[in-house]
Amino acid sequence: MERMPLVTQTLYAELMEQLIASEAHRSIRNLAGCFTYKNIKGKDYCYFQSAEPGGSTRQIYIGPRNQPIEGFIEKFESDRPNVKTEIDNLNRLCSQLRVGGANTTESETARVIKALADSQVFKLGGVLIGTHAFLIMGNILGVKWERPSLRTQDIDIAGPLHMEIAIPDLIADVPKALESLQMGFLPIPPLNHKHASTSYHIRGKELRVDILTPAKRSDDTKPVFIQRLKTAAQPLMYLDYLIASLVQAAIVNGGGTLVNIPDPARFALHKIAISGERPVSSGMKSTKDLFQASQLIKVLIEDRPGDLTLALEDLRSRGKGFEKRFENGLKLLRSSYPDTYEALISQSS
């Protein structure tokens, strides 16, 4: 792990601003209208409102209110940039980021994630989790990860059963998006033939896409269908903690793709909690869980200690079952990374 140059971190921030602008422009470029905000459950969300024939209005969801969104609105009001110029700028920024040492996503994987993004999966609350999310967190935090910690062919997408906000006239189709790639994606038959498939793979390759959703109880193992994504998802305990607080982030490849990922502090603590839950046959995954948690905690304690404090407080409020798993994971962390363990304990005391 090494710190990225400041210029690379600045380029990443610029990429994020342009991706948010590009995503919003794709929906509203040719519409006459204005921006408006709605406050839902204490959070502000931005919409573009336009007039429809007959006097009705149409609202297009843009995203949660934040500085990049507000910056985009200001820029949009004065100028609607040319599509080709946008694409050229994004490609240029990604090239500069690769040269500057940013964490980049392998091309085949990036292509699949972009297809999911284009189908509106992330706008509809989908969250990229797992190692690919960890990779992107390095760019957010301004650090370059060691490549061995990033080797995976699994693309894990989490989707809550219900969204906090209503996004009218918008639906994704995960199977159709994967089929459109013409890469040979097929549903993986579940162990119980009565259940719907929650995973897709390419025959003869390790690349696969897994769709997950939070489980309410430990015995919730039957796949559930997420209507807005047109696919079934495998319920997992404590996934709700991981995706309770999301961050918009950018995948860096030949171009850029806007996705949702978990808050890095929650990601680190969740990795600790599940590290001890892995079966013996998945020992390598447990090792990777602890390594990624350790790397994140080192950076967060130095740069964002408050994020860890808040994540720890929420974890301990979610019941004794989850807290016990976390304590068991801490024992493994102490054995593998004693310095990180001591730093985390000091931060939480």
Rg (CA only): 20 Å
| Overall shape | globular
How confident overall, as mean pLDDT?
87
* Beta strand count: 14
Largest sheet: 7 strands, mixed
Which percent band covers the strand fraction? 15-25%
Helix proportion: 40-55%
Task: State the end-to-end CA separation.
Answer: 27 Å
Structural class: alpha+beta
Helical element count? 12
Which residue ranges are poorly predicted, with pLDDT under 50 across at least 5 consecutive positions?
A: none
Following the backbone from N to C, one meets helices and strands in this order, namely EHEEEHHHEHEEHEEEEEHEEHHHHH
Number of domains: 2
Structure described in brief:
The chain has twelve helices and 14 strands. With 349 residues, the chain is α+β, with helices and mostly antiparallel strands.
Characterize the structure shown:
The protein is an alpha+beta fold and about 350 residues long. The protein has 2 domains: about 1-260, no CATH class; about 265-349, no CATH class. Helices cover about 45% and strands about 20% of the residues. It has 12 helices and 14 strands. It has helices at about 5-30, 65-80, 85-100, 105-120, 130-140, 175-180, 240, 265-275, 285-305, 305-315, 320-335, 340-349, and strands at about 1-5, 35-40, 45-50, 55-65, 125-130, 145, 155-160, 185, 200, 210-215, 225, 230-235, 245-250, 255-260. Strands 5, 7, 8, 9, 10, 11 and 12 form a 7-stranded mixed beta sheet that branches. A 3-stranded antiparallel beta sheet has the order 2-3-4, covered by helices on one side. A two-stranded antiparallel ribbon has the order 1-6. Strand 3 (about 45-50) and strand 4 (about 55-65) form a beta hairpin. The mean pLDDT is about 85.
